[in-house]
Amino acid sequence: MFKNTISNLGRIRQVAEVLIRYGFEDVVTNTALRRLVPKSRRKSWQEGEYPVFETTRWQRIRMVIEELGPTFIKLAQALSNRADLLPQPLIDEFEKLQSNVPPFLVAQARRIIEQELGQPLEEVFLEFEEETLGSASIGQVHRARLMTGEEVVVKVQRPDVQEKVRTDLSLLRELVSLTAPFLRKQGLANPQDIVDAFERSMTKELDYTSEARSMEQFRKLYESYDTFYIPKPYREISTSKILVIEYVSGCKITDKAQLLGWELSPEKVAETGMDIYLTQIFEFGAFHADPHPGNVLVQPDGTIVLIDFGMVGRLTKQQKYAFAGVFIGMARQDARSMALNFRRLALTSEIPDMRAFESDLAQLIDDFASLDVKEMSMSDLADALQGIIYRYKLQVPGAVFLILRALVILEGIGKVLHPSFNTFDFVRPYGARIIAEQYSPENILSEAQYTGAQLLALLQTLPTDLRQIMRKISRGDLRVRVELSGYQLLLRKADQLVSRSILAAISVAMILFAGLSLLGHYPAGQMGYFRGLPLVTWYSLGIAAFLLLILFILGTKDDRRRE
Q1: Interval 5-55: pLDDT, tens
Q2: 290 is catalytic
Q3: Same-domain status, 50 and 150
Q4: Total domain count, the chain
Q5: Distance (Å, whole) CA 351 – CA 369
Q6: Could you tell me if 406 and 536 lie in one domain?
């Protein structure tokens, strides 16, 4: 760890200065970061042209992320889907982040492709367009044509991006280590777990073979669908750093004019798109997690095409049932059913007050039950659900937030194409279908078999475990370890209280002694006087005043810390 800190020292200082520049000096001065930034290099909050304090704290956090670069932007974008960790105002700011970056030189792209494939570009592609179709922080896309004549797009990873990401991930771990106590005070109970999860996500995104596997999985799931198409990945000429995909033409799903020009019904297109997406969630449990208009194309015959499978969400069968149960409970205006399904959905469900939780869900149901169908909004419902999840600190699967975000995006697309589009009308029949599936004889038999296998495994190991416990008891070797958490803070507070009580007692004693000293009769020449009072009285009062000043300063510091 020490070696990593030394190697990242310059970058850590830069991060600290950016934090100070945007008014987050408390993050630096209240953590170990303060030791890494010389006072001479600290900048005043009010320096620079940007009026920092005319913005909110959440906006300034976004400014910091933007200045720190692509890896931090990626982290913030990932966290924008985690309403169980961050407050909604911060999520709103993170959703504004864009990671668009200029493309790198086409000569570098050609060199990377040749290095990965081990042969000249001209032997693989008949044509290779130098102008990029798009560029992002991880890579960029070029259009090309294979020697066999098929049109393709080639995703090429940026030069040295893996090394840069590894450096920034190492830096993130260092920053979390240095600021963990401060972050926990701000409500992030497990900052290191967040970085670990982000590292796994980034590692997966840096491996293009993962995206190719996802595309092949979806192609297999939807091979019998006529209205839905996923481009073919060319695995034989793809590697972890380049991905060759079938080129598919079409217009954005929100291009209503083009749809009408092709004599397609925009309303029908919207309905088909929503049905396809809900099928992914509630039937297959695997879904395309970024359905913004640029990733959803429509062909002249009405076929819907999904591209860019870099972000895919997955739900287990039990998570799928629990998620559907939340919506079904809301449709039935059953707050208790919603609460129980939330507990089934959560990875950890330590809700301190279930009555208050059910009451909040009942209030949410009342708020939406009174709305007309045209007034109902998936965006408002998602915000309300995410607010409850954050308030009760429920740790639910990240896929849940991806689904809510995707439904909001799809609702926006639907309203562009379909004036009376309502997401809830599409979700309702899928909820009924899930209930039928959950209580089907096949699923009940499967659950019974799983439970039986678990009980059998328990019965097989139980005699051995009991024998070991009895042996330890007979030998007197059985030990019970009890761990107390949080007592360090209590002991520290008790120590402070005792110390200050002693100071206060001494102060009171000195004041009493000063009063008693006035009653004494001192022979001439043995006691000095000042302003008619014995010097011993003045000394006693001075000591008492000094001790009271110390108590006052300590109390002021505590108030500042609490603020």
Answers
A1: 555 666 777 777 777 666 665 566 556 666 665 555 544 444 445 544 456
A2: yes
A3: no
A4: 5
A5: 25
A6: no
